[in-house]
Amino acid sequence: MKINILSFAQPHMRSFHLSWMSFFTAFLSTFAAAPMIPVVRENLNLTKGDLGNAGIAAVCGNILGRVVMGWVCDTYGPRFGHSVLMLSTAPAVFCMSLVTTPIGFIMSRFVIGFGLATFVATQFWSSSMFSGNCVGMANATTAGWGNLGGGVTQFIIPVIYGVFQNYYPNFYAWRCAFFIPGFMHIGVGIGVLYFAQDLPDGQYQDLKEKGSLETDGKKSFLNAVINYRMWVMVILYGLCFGVELTMNNIIVAYLYDQFDLPLRIAGILGACFGLMNLFARSLGGFSSDLGGKYLGMRGRLWAYWAVQSLEAVFCIAMGYLEYTLAGTLTTMVLFSICVQMSEGAAYGVVPFISKRSLGVVSGFIGAGGNAGCSVLMALYFKGDVFNGPVNEGIRYMGFTILVLTMLVWLMHFPMWGSMAFPPKRNADGTLLYSETDYYFSDWTEAEKKEGKHLAAAKFAENAKIQRMPVDRPSAEPLEKVVAE
Questions:
Q1: Tens digit of pLDDT for each residue in 399-415?
Q2: Which CATH class is domain 12-194+215-417?
Q3: CB under 8 Å to 179, separation ≥6 — which residues?
Q4: Cα end-to-end span (Å), the chain
Q5: Domain ranges in the chain?
Q6: Digit-coded pLDDT (tens) for 137-167
Q7: What letter would DSSP give residue 261?
């Protein structure tokens, strides 16, 4: 029911901290190459096309990885998903130190990028551990602190490179820097596997054996893909998280080339974009929970649309201020804050799309972020479609965000309504649809006869807080909901 940041107690807060640490490590290693681009491109003779392909490779493989991770979470639990990804991608991080060709560099970034699928396990885990009154804040903080790795890596890897540079030549020093994130993968992967718990009630496998959890992964998957709300959020999330991944790929090289800065200074300034995750994503989750408190789900949708539209405005402004470092940095920070807030606000909505298919829904929407990055990189920063200066690519990206964010207006929940329209009512003024109508509909009549739909009863009752205040009932016993 609440988040105690200073606690590491089992099960809630330990899963909270281990999940963001795992995602942080994945981000750190995935974008460790980005601040080293000025050195690496000279060492490996990388062209603009190679760099664009490497940036796309770092996130596009993870599109499938996030979809699969959703199924893994629904079937085996988030702890297993985190650990397997951390340990299986560790060899690719170490192998980055051995690459000698452009294709080797691209393939290493491709495999390392699979680690970003830990995001899905992170969101599934916190959505399962925390109540509806604070789930937006919980999801936003774990994801935001994980995303922080994308900012930390922008300055910590050049610092590590500088230390090794005192002992090795340039083209060896950057390779040695990758051993640090490699060992982090191993440590975090083991820690999650042996020191955490999947759900408040116990470990996933034990609960499945008792019949308390969904066991049909195929039906869970099919139930998710026919829900149009998930597909709308897939596109929308590509316009916030996808934008963050894009900026992580280009920002240091842009500052280095555009303003002729030393690499270490460009790395430190570029890190400011990712470092906003320290608080901004949590702020987005808070804005979503605040909107939910006063206007229910309609308030959450309004909060999301507002911050993502503001993100687009600052992105466009940054693209127009290419000749002033101060102006670029100021708008970059404001742009970043809105990007992270949009991500936090997005996952204030996601947990309510489907209870039965929470993992698959989280996986697809998370994959939408990576797909968004791949599309934006290909359109504006790879050189095949648009071959103009980087600042113009940033500007056009902002216009794209502004237009497509209007899709939020299409999100409608029958029991809560949408941004523009309230829910339908009976003649006596009561709601036509209830939370149980919506969430229980994920099960067939045959499954309902077996009582499988009752796994969503507690969630449906708790979700009534997403109604407009005038429609919120006094607390009803869960036994009454189950009986109905």
A1: 999 999 999 999 999 99
A2: mainly alpha
A3: 94, 97
A4: 26
A5: 12-194+215-417, 423-483
A6: 888 889 888 888 888 888 889 889 989 988 8
A7: -
